[in-house]
Amino acid sequence: NAGVTQTPKFRVLKTGQSMTLLCAQDMNHEYMYWYRQDPGMGLRLIHYSVGEGTTAKGEVPDGYNVSRLKKQNFLLGLESAAPSQTSVYFCASSYIRQYEQYFGPGTRLTVT
Amino acid sequence: GEDVEQSLFLSVREGDSSVINCTYTDSSSTYLYWYKQEPGAGLQLLTYIFSNMDMKQDQRLTVLLNKKDKHLSLRIADTQTGDSAIYFCAEGLSGGSYIPTFGRGTSLIVHP
Q1: Is B32 part of the contact surface with chain A (CB cutoff 8 Å)?
Q2: Higher pLDDT, B101 or B76
Q3: Cα–Cα 20 to 30 A to A69, which of A11, A20, B20, B55?
């Protein structure tokens, strides 16, 4: 039981490049989330999903897209990376009506 | 709107008690959580309390909830260097669309 895994762990992009971050969970959770963590800002919700095939915007969705084609995977896409997207990205998952979120180890992204 | 406030830093001596405080604004919050983030890792749930409780104790951890003042605290007894981490307070609502709100996190530094 691996829990929540994220790929890649580190990435450096140039401004304007695109990339996809992959989150996978093996706990059969319905809910999945993408957060970004910046110094002094805590966690900010980017997008989330309440089930396979569904996505919704969070607090800071601009510049990101997501897809949940399979229940166990939640993808976060950056179409045209900007330096403001330099951050640590965390994926999390939870059961419906269960109140603990399980977090992945994070992806550290630097955009130059 | 929802907002969760925490102080950013707390420094204590090893063996002393630590008290981390949090205030929240949404009086309909049903669950309140404490997460711990160790360096370079994702968040892990430490403990949680239902809004119909005033206190919860779990080994060295004591959570106090003052619903009237919307104030939550986490007390760590006999603080150890391994307790050094960032502690996040989060509030959540019951119901099908559970999206928690996190505070900015309190960095706890434990020195010998």
Answers
A1: no
A2: B76
A3: A11
User: What is the arithmetic mean of pLDDT over A53-58?
Assistant: 94
Helix, strand or coil for residue A62?
coil
pLDDT band at residue B93 under the 50/70/90 scheme: low
Nearest to residue A33, comparing CAs of A19, A21, A10, A50?
A: A50
**Predicted confidence (pLDDT) at residue B2 exceeds the cutoff of 90:** no
Confirm if B112 and B16 have CB atoms less than 8 A apart. no
Q: List CB contacts (< 8 A) between A50 and chain B.
A: 96-97
Q: B31, B91 in Cβ contact below 8 A? A: yes
CA-based torsion, B90, A49, A70, B40: positive or negative = negative
Q: Give the nearest chain B residue to A57 (CA atoms).
A: B99
Adjacency order of strands within the sheet including B18-24: B4-6, B18-24, B71-76, B61-66, B55-58
Find the mean pLDDT for residues A50-57: 94
